[in-house]
Fold this sequence. Notes:
The protein has 2 helices and no strands. By secondary structure, it is mostly helical. The protein is flat and about 35 Å long.
Amino acid sequence: MYRINMRRLVAISVICFGAGILLSFLLPGYFLAFIEAAVIVAAGILLLWKNH
Length: 52
């Protein structure tokens, strides 16, 4: 099991938030929606895979 401390979790969150804002200015809306859906599906698969 990996253990992520709070400082690293906050740093990753800030980087992802900043990248999302930057991409919202550069990419069209339909492409951003596709990326978001793909990330949510991948996260769900990883969570289900982790429990088994």
